[in-house]
Structure formats: structure tokens, C-alpha cells
């Protein structure tokens, strides 16, 4: 059954834009008084609303009244929202002057979330995750990547990934699981970092494959986590087993981007510490540069060099990094809008980074733009000009969100 949704004051289909490099708002192909024709959860076309009404007289019409701007649903390609407990204590300590790494070294940090997450059952975790997914979906995020990484043993990582699968089965949002067992070496593992990674390769990754729990792996490359040569070993083993790779790179120190590019990772995420060398590497590769402004805001640090990455020709995605430690806010649009003001990003660059460029970081080519054959993942903002959306710095929320799973 065909369905015509509209009219919308403006539709930003985000089509015809390059995957990499700087964008100007003049390149946006805005459709005024537009409609979206969908069938079986896919876009058939977006065009002038009256024209579509005339050409498809038998389509069911979902009438939109008042001014609205239609965008593709956002893709949050980096989150850690499968966790239990809180780290409000860490946040207070940071604001009292302690650094993220000092807090981690003194027993707080990621390890604290591991303890709290291990203490929760799979169902408790899945229920917590379901609530966070529902909030994100209501805010227009129709595809959400969710990492494990607070289990850090075979049993506990599998529990997290199963909780993610449980939650995925209960939502209209699209959930993309990633195994981040290589977050840090757990304190209860008896052996070196390299041995922990071998244990993951031998004992965890085959089970994840077998049970179809994830097809991506992530690793945190940092002085407090894993070094570059151990990470290269881990990623190449994972790639040989058929996993896609992504990397927590250059958050505090460099090294991660080089590994990500060498391992042909889908994305290198964070990049706050990246310099000209890393920017060039990313611009000349297919690895998507993912900036995580929520982590900069949560840690009170500078942003990744988003403007420079775009000007150099990189594919720049923007994700929330929503996690209990460094990025507890989880409001993707607010984070992107606020960063855009500092980094001087155009609306076209921000929306591209939140949609089709972010889906590239997940190697998904079926979403992020509104054109025939793509998923009918869409969101409508109550305003008459797309510029209102970033201008209101995340306070203007969509009033209607559709995903392919409830849009036919
Ligand atoms: O992306 N950098 C490492 N991992 C997360 C933080 C996780 C945590 O602090 O719990 C991040 O910022
Ligand atoms: Fe992260």
C-alpha cells in the first residue's frame, strides 16, 4: 500500500551530495511544499506534494498540518548505552579538577561501569537500554549503534550483546551491535594486554560469530587501554574472521588513526588529539572520521578538528558517544549544534554527518538520504526553515519520527 506523507514546508532529501569533504548549504536540494511517498517501509519518491497527490490518487494520505521540515532520520554510529549504574561521582571529581585518566587510575572510570554492569542481569540491562533507545528514537535517531565493552569477559560480553539483541527486538529503531570487549584490559584478567586480546580472539569472537550477535568490533587505542601493535594484531584477526572494524582513536594521544587506516577500519572515532598527519591520513582513506562532541562536552575538552577534516576532504560523521563516563548527556542534535558553532560547520555538513555520512561509518548504504529504494526513516521538525533546527541548538525536537519498521 502506497502512503503519501505531507505536505512539508521543506524537505531536505540530502541527495546528490558528495560522501567526503566540505559542503555548503547552497548544495542542499530543498523541496518546498513537498511530500514523501513510501511503500513497504521504503521511499518511493520525494517531490512536490500536490504533484504526488495527483500522480498517485489511490495512495493513502498521512496529512501533516502546519509548518514542518522533513529530514532523514539520524544515524548515531557510536554509543555505549548498554550499561547499568551511574558515574555522576566521576563527573563531580572531574569538575573538581581530576582528569579522566587520573580517575580511571584510581579505580573509577570504565572499570566502575564494568562492575555495575556485571551486577545487572541480562533483562535488567536490556530494560535500561530499551529506555535509552526510546529516548533517542523520539529525538529523531532512527539507527543506533550500541557497543558492549562493560562486560570484559566472555560470559559478561555475551550477556551485554544478548541484552542488546533483546532490546533490538522490541523497538522500531534499527540497532547495530558492536563488540567492544577490547575497551580496557579488565582488572581481574591475569596477563598482559596482548594476552587478553588473544583470549578475545580465541574464546569470544568465535562465539559472537556463531550466535550472530555482532558483525563489528571496536578497540580503544590509548595509553590507558591498548597499544598500537596489539591493536593491529587484534583488528587483523577480527577482520580475518569477517568482522568489520572501528577504532577509538586519538582521544588523548595519537596512534589510533594510523592503526584504523592500516586495518581499513570503517571508522576512526574521537580524534580530539588528531593533528595534520592524522587528518591527511583520514582524508586519503575510506575510513570515516567520527567526531564525538558529547565526549568533549562531558570531559570539558576541545573538539576534534572537524572543520580541518572536512576541508582536507575527509568523510566526517557526528555521533553522541552516549556513555555513563565521558558523555552522559546523549543528546545528539544538541551536541552537533553546539559543536557546529565552534567548528564553523554548515547545516549541510552537520546533517550529512548525522545521516548518510554516519551510515557510511556503519557500512550501511540503505539509509540516510530520502531517495527511491532507501529506508523510510524520517523525522519532522515543527518549523518553516531548516536553519531553525541548528539555531535552536538542539532544543527543537522532531514532533514525528518514522522508521521503515512502522512506515508503510
Ligand atoms: O568513547 N574512550 C573510551 N570509551 C568511552 C568512554 C567510556 C566510559 O568512560 O565509560 C568513550 O569516551
Ligand atoms: Fe566511545
TrEMBL record:
Q: What is its EC number?
A: 3.5.2.7
Keyword annotations for this protein, in alphabetical order, are: Histidine metabolism, Hydrolase, Iron, Metal-binding, Zinc
GO BP terms, alphabetized: L-histidine catabolic process to glutamate and formamide
Q: Which residues form the Amidohydrolase-related domain?
A: 69-380
State what protein this is by name: Imidazolonepropionase
Query: Species lineage, top-down?
Result: Bacteria, Pseudomonadati, Bacteroidota, Sphingobacteriia, Sphingobacteriales
Gene3D superfamilies in UniProt: Metal-dependent hydrolases (3.20.20.140), Urease, subunit C, domain 1 (2.30.40.10)
- The record lists the organism as Mucilaginibacter gossypiicola
Pfam families xrefs: Amidohydro_1 (PF01979)
A GO cellular component annotated for this chain's UniProt record is: cytoplasm
Kindly give the PANTHER family that the UniProt entry links to this protein: IMIDAZOLONEPROPIONASE, IMIDAZOLONEPROPIONASE-RELATED
Say which domain of life the source belongs to.
Answer: Bacteria
Root EC class: hydrolase
Q: Which InterPro entries match?
A: Amidohydro-rel (IPR006680), HutI (IPR005920), Metal-dep_hydrolase_composite (IPR011059), Metal_Hydrolase (IPR032466)
- Pathway of action: Amino-acid degradation
